[in-house]
Amino acid sequence: MLKTTRLKRAFQPKHRMNRPCFYGLTLLFCCFSQVLWGQEDLTLLPYYQYYQDDANALYREMVNEAAMQFEAREATVAALTTAEDWQTYQQTVKQKLVRLIGPFPEKTPLNPKVTGTIDRPEYTVEKLVYESQPGFYVTAALFLPKQRKGKAPAIIYCSGHTPLGFRSDVYQNKILNLVQKGFVVLAFDPLGQGERMQYPAEQGSESQIGGPTHEHSYAGAQCFITGSSLARHMIWDGIRTVDYLLTRPEVDPQRIGMTGRSGGGTQTTYITAFDDRIRAAAPEAYLTRLDHLLKTEGPQDAEQNVPYFIARQLDLSDFLIARAPKPTLIVSTTRDMFSIEGARETYHEVRRAFEALGHAEDISMSEDDAPHASTLKNREAMYAFFQKHLQHPGNPREEAVTLFTPEELWVTSHGQVAQDLNSNNVFGLNRDESQEKKALIRQARGNFDAETIIADARSLSGFQDTAEIGEVYFAGQYPRDGYTVQKYLMIGETHVNPFLLFVPNQASGKEAVVYFHPEGKTAQAGIGQEIEALVKQGKVVLAADVPGTGELGPGYLKGDAYIDKISYNQWFGGILLDESIVARQAEDMVKMVDYLKNIAEGEEVTITAVAHSTLTPSLLHAATFTPAIQRTVLIEPLYSYETLLTHERYDTRWVYAGIAGAMNSYDLADLAASLAPRQLLIANPVDHQFNKIDVAEFDSEWDIVQQQYQSTGNFRALFLETEEEMVEQLVRW
Fold first, then answer.
1. Both ends of the chain: CA-CA distance in Å?
2. When you count CB atoms within 10 A of the terminal residue's CB, does the N or C end of the chain come out lower?
3. Which of 585, 562, 563, 581 shows the shortest CA–CA distance to 572?
4. Would you say 252 and 154 are in contact if contact means Cβ atoms under 8 Å apart?
């Protein structure tokens, strides 16, 4: 086990004779190893068993960083005692929420239409459609009890994650029980569910990409890069639903409640924090503490992740504090995926606020022993809660009801607004917003300011200059024809970095390459592959695993199971923390560059950095942030974030290469332009689906790069046909 200082000495030959220090290391190590190529094992973590769980390091690091924010928040909340304290804190929370989720669109005509009516002995059902935004249709059903005395209290029902929306048997049972107890109920489909599938099949009501969570996250990822969020769209649907409800003469505007389970609990929690017209709220099977959520299920689908939420020292209880002291019921189960301990802690914290404000009786919690499910005890607690707080007394016992088939409650002819009404979708709304922001980026290129681009990229990505070279352990080597492959493990503060050093027997000059591949350090490390071609030219090559690649990813460990969730859930975790996977990878890339410079012991070493495919945005950021990378090579890089946002179907492997809010300031070409005059090589740029783009399309977007490099000739873009050409050009360059 060699510390960095000892490792540096090992690189020094007895007689330097102006040769690179790498040369002496190779001669020294080649004397000891007799291992054949066919027996090579280039992994590190199976040997260093203590660090095997560092495949989980990226996620663990996020959880640990979140813990510091939670601790700071808890200290703030613990100091709140008086009503004035809580009111001041409440206003701060509201301001934060508005900044993080807003601004909302302007209110436009709802254009409601009743597409059908169902008559039953005790109530009628009006099947409705209205526009929460122009051309963006919401499907709903208004249940009207026939026995009413004047204006009635009303409940808005939010559906959880089911393709059926409010037509699910579980949800119908609650809706119809509320109706039979005399409540008007307006149930609406969340986007991505029911008749509002964002990616519906050409025929029928099935989604082309999976269930509601996929529908949400697929569209929500594009929203994040644009600088928006799916939560904003879903909250706005809820606000406009209240707008519609208040147009109904049957409804008492002073007695409006909202409830929903699971994803409906999320919507209820969010919407009621923003809409003061909702007097009583009963979110079910959602509320917990985020620290418990991160340590159990992890970040959920897109609408449940508000950008920078944890970084601004907020927790889910703050949504309830924002609406305090309006009546609120937390409904939970003990074996829910949403931690019951977190639900209890949320209740006790929010109760402190209600007590200080003089309304202890208006906060309550119902809990039952069950998994993520609706129970009779909790349903009857919900009925009693609304009967009390919406001044509509009655018997809270659940009654038997006759359910509808899903088809009976269809609002549209074929069960999808996309087919029957040519409805816009989240992609369309977000594409338009992203195009408006991209127009501003292009406008700013007329007076290009590299320093501003770099500063914005640092801020938006969450890049930190704190990554230091840790202790480095030598773990063996393999001789090959003309060079040696050496194995190392770098021990950082939060995780390790396994890396390989390919050292030629005859180093041709003071040149070194850092090499990154999304499949890890061994992806091009074999005989006759890219790394060997570089080493055969006399270059020392360092190939490393960075978070999310090779032995450090791409997912995380949960028990004995390996969960491959980096594409969405871990990326969402970074967004909550105002950072990114790109930044974590870029930090380690810079650390590897610094290591190469360090072992050179003051000698001038020209460092070239090479990245493939989904790691190219990370390397582009890293090269932007450190001048130590003199040459940057991007092989099959994503040519713009814009392509991810202007095409409805994209390859999800690009998701974690995105930066939340990037379109508020820059695109990838702007980063590339900021590298001038350092050398930059692009080979076979690709689009959102990994398709090679044509020269004209590339030139149009990367014109700003050409402009910044026009006096140097240090920028080249290659469009090649074969892998052999790629290797040849890489070596030649």
1. 37
2. N
3. 581
4. yes
How much of the chain is in helix, strand and coil states, percent to nearest 5?
A: 45, 20, 40
The alpha carbon of 189 is separated from its chain's Cα centroid by a whole number of angstroms, namely: 24
The per-residue pLDDT for range 394-427, each reduced to its tens digit, is 999 999 999 999 999 999 999 999 999 999 999 9
Query: Are the C-beta atoms of residues 124 and 144 closer than 8 Å to each other?
Result: yes
Whole-angstrom Cα Rg for the chain: 29
Written as six digits, the tokens of 311 are: 């970084």
Pick 726 or 76 by higher pLDDT. 76
Query: What does the DSSP 8-state code read for residue 200?
Result: B
- Parallel, antiparallel or unpaired: strands 184-188 and 152-158: parallel
Digit-coded pLDDT (tens) for 514-563: 999 999 999 999 999 999 999 999 999 999 999 989 998 765 444 554 44
C-alpha to C-alpha distance for 224 and 641, rounded to whole angstroms: 12
Closest CA to 125 of 103, 105, 106, 140: 140
**Mean pLDDT, residues 592-610 taken together:** 89
234's CB contacts (< 8 A; 6+ apart) are 190, 191, 267, 270, 271, 303
Q: Tell me if 97 sits within 8 A of 274, measured CB to CB.
A: yes
Q: Note the helical H segments in 79-134.
A: 83-101
Verify cis geometry, omega within 30 degrees of 0, for the bond prior to 677: yes
Mean pLDDT value across residues 103-115 = 97
Give the other-Cβ count within 10 Å of 432's Cβ.
12
- Using alpha carbons, select from 385, 336, 387 the residue that is nearest to residue 363: 385
Q: Is the pLDDT of residue 71 over 90?
A: yes
Q: Check residue 727 and give left, alpha or beta (phi > 0: left; psi -120 to 50: alpha).
A: alpha
Cα separation, 277 vs 175, in Å, equals: 21
CB 36 within 8 A of CB 480: no
Q: Which two tokens stand for residue 157?
A: 């029902």
Task: Report d(CA 534, CA 730) in Å as an integer.
Answer: 8
| Residue 68 pLDDT exceeds 70 | yes
User: Is residue 32 over pLDDT 70?
Assistant: no
Among the ranges 30-44, 61-75, 560-574, which has the highest mean pLDDT value? 61-75
- Tokens coding 536: 């055969």
